[in-house]
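thought: fold this chain, then report.
action: predict
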Amino acid sequence: MKKFSFILLTALTISFFSCDKSEDVIDILDEKQVELNNTVETVVASEEASETIIEVADYEVDLFSFMESEYDQPTGTKNGYQNRYGQLFMEWQRYKTDKMPEVSIEFGDDGRFPMTITINYGDSTVLHNGTVIGGAIKIELTARPRTNGAVREITYDLMIDSVAMDGTKRIEFTGEQGVSRKWDYTSELTFTYPDGTELFRSAERTREWVSGLDTKWDVSDDKIEIRGSATCVDTEQNEYSKEIDEENPLTRIGTCRMIVSGLVKFSQNQVEFATFDYGDGECDNIATYTYTNEDGEEVSKEVEIGKHKRHKKN
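observation:
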């Protein structure tokens, strides 16, 4: 069977899970059930790495979108941004140094909306948790994000740690205005790993802010729950689906760089071949994935997540 290149395996191992480098290679399932061109470990590792990247990007989108009411006039220059909005954004204490992303605001011709927010991180902007973001995000809002029918069209051209993320996402407010804070997401995103290997994923999700929206300058009480599914294909032609368990959604909190809880199920041709469990809500870097080997035995392995470092290509 065809394997990912050694470079990709090494990059994934170092950057995302820090798995041991032993000779104990995990077997895939019986090919009568599931046909993968890689081990289950490699497929799960690459996809869950992209999950972490998505959450970093989506959190940035929400922060700048929910600041909409503070944007009192357009600005497209660095000086204008620093003078008018820089101090506001620094209140978050989200960025490690005084180097903030540059933000430009454009209003519609006939009023405040449609509004366009462009966030430019330059070559690198460092978060307090050590994550490095480069590139840009463009957000187009039809209305205030928490009003009925409001839509955000997002375009990503990012480098987060060692992974490039490109593509589009549509976010529509589907909660009850003034009562619940829920959005439906559809996206088509491509992730490029350090050796050039690509992973494409098309997803439909719901994302609900359970707490924290009323304290926009305090990320410590932010809590987000994510539900939904995605279909994935990589350059090794592995095709599979992943679904978040409805009773155990992915949970993100503002004070932790990793997803802190939730269960994801991997399947191919409606046959489940692995699960990934993020834990019980503690902000740690430990998760567990489980699969059934070719002998029909259930195998679980504890892995480390969230160890992101910026790697340059040779």
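thought: worth noting. The first helix runs from residue 6 to 17.
final: tokens above.
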